[in-house]
Specification:
- This protein is mainly beta.
- It has three helices and 29 strands.
- The chain has helices at 8-14, 298-301, 304-310; strands at 25-29, 40-44, 51-56, 64-68, 85-91, 96-101, 107-111, 117-122, 140-145, 151-155, 161-164, 172-176, 179-180, 199-202, 207-211, 216-221, 226-232, 244-247, 253-256, 264-268, 273-278, 287-292, 314-321, 324-328, 336-342, 348-355, 360-363, 371-379, 384-392.
- The strands form seven sheets. The chain has a five-stranded mixed beta sheet with strand order 4-8-7-6-5, with no helix packed on it.
């Protein structure tokens, strides 16, 4: 396998505009249409669900190799999805497809830049949600990337929300148990009858949205871990169970089912209503999970003008020297911005006003210890124009 090693600062630089819109949608399917063994990775069309490419399927008997991210004991298997897969997430900045096995405790990825198929596994204990053979509650069934550039994974029972980074020294953090919103009532996020399974997507404001297998939608605040019941998707066929969710390049939600091969469905997320079928004449691959790099509301937050500003944000040095770095934001002379620094649990540790084209010195002496922190710059309309990371040594 050809290896490419980048410095940590170079990887951080790549995280600018990490959620650029992409037409790519990936699906976990069976070997053939209608198969219920979730062991194949495919790219499908966001327009009609047609097969664009097969990344891996067991029947092709592709050569495989395995690597351990942290040099621990990751046992090679005969094929990547040895106990099936219900959770994947696509990271556009690295072009990696992340996943976890239904009965496994490792966070894995396939590097889509490589010609062959190499599975890289991370068995950090923070990703272990418990014995998945003894209880389905512990199975990770939802995974996505958020506006902060981090990945998020959630167990069936919503007792474990896990955040992970994608650099050469990835950090995996178990953020803990989701909290039911005050108005959830009987629609508890922990209810094993109505709230398990499904998938998860992010929005441009830093929230996560769960669409569970019964088509109910919950909004998750990644800072407070409060999960608010939003409603149920309307217009799906009777008996349709949501198992996969992704966002297309137009900002529409796309849903798939593990048992339904007639079509995927496009949903207007502002009304939670199906607007059209996404299908070919022969139907689609029934999919246990979908993954894309897009965010809900992304086009409404990052306009072309704001995207131009985003490209002009500079952070130096990174890693920060002596807990100090400088920030400069391009724009009109009168433009004002706010810089917020948060830790890996989403807690705000520093906030400062910025003026366009002025070099601002940021001193984190009293605010933080060594580690990785997330940076966010917002404008006066409270729109996020920049997300990145800074390393404090």
């Amino acid at each position: 396998m050809k290896k490419l090693f980048l410095s940590l600062s170079a990887l951080i630089a790549l995280s600018v505009n990490v959620n650029a819109q992409s037409a790519k949608i990936f699906a976990v399917t069976g070997d053939v249409q209608g198969n219920l063994n979730w062991n194949a990775f495919r790219e499908v069309s966001s327009a009609d669900g047609a097969l664009k490419s097969t990344i891996y399927t067991p029947s092709a008997k592709q050569p495989l190799s395995y690597q351990s991210m942290v040099n621990r004991n990751v046992a090679p298997t005969l094929e990547p999805a040895f106990t099936a897969i219900a959770a994947t997430a696509y990271d556009a900045k690295t072009n990696r497809l992340y996943y976890t096995n239904m009965r496994g405790n490792t966070l894995n990825y396939v590097d889509l830049n490589e010609g062959g198929l190499t599975v890289v596994s991370n068995d950090d204990a923070a990703f272990n949600t418990g014995d998945k053979f003894k209880s389905e509650a512990n199975i990770v069934t939802r995974m996505t990337f958020g506006a902060d550039g981090a990945g998020y994974a959630l167990s069936n029972d919503a007792e474990h929300l896990i955040r992970f980074t994608t650099d050469n020294k990835p950090v995996i953090s178990n953020l803990g148990r989701l909290i039911d919103g005050a108005n959830n009532g009987a629609n508890s996020i922990h209810n094993n009858i109505t709230s398990w399974g499904g998938d998860m997507v992010g929005d441009a404001f830093g929230n996560l949205y769960i669409v569970n297998m019964h088509n109910a939608v919950y909004k998750v605040n990644t800072h407070t871990l409060v999960s608010d019941y939003v409603g149920v998707v309307k217009g799906l066929p009777e008996g349709f169970t949501t198992n996969g969710a992704a966002v297309n390049e137009d900002g529409d939600l796309i849903l798939s089912s593990a048992i339904y091969t007639a079509s995927y469905f496009k949903v207007d997320f502002t009304t939670l209503t199906v607007t059209s079928s996404v299908k070919t004449a022969g139907g689609v691959y029934n999919a246990s999970d979908l993954a894309s790099a897009n965010l809900l509301y992304q086009s409404k937050v990052v306009s072309p003008a704001l995207a131009a500003i985003n490209a002009k944000v500079s952070i130096y040095p990174n890693p920060a020297v002596g807990k100090t770095f400088q920030v400069q934001v391009g724009g009109a002379a009168t433009d004002k911005f706010v810089l917020q620094v948060t830790d890996l649990k989403g807690k705000s540790v520093y906030e400062s006003a910025l003026t366009a084209n002025s070099l601002s010195k940021i001193n984190l002496f009293k605010s933080v210890g060594a580690g990785v922190y997330f940076l966010k710059v917002t404008n006066t309309a409270k729109q996020t124009i920049y997300n990145s990371k800074v390393v404090v040594e």
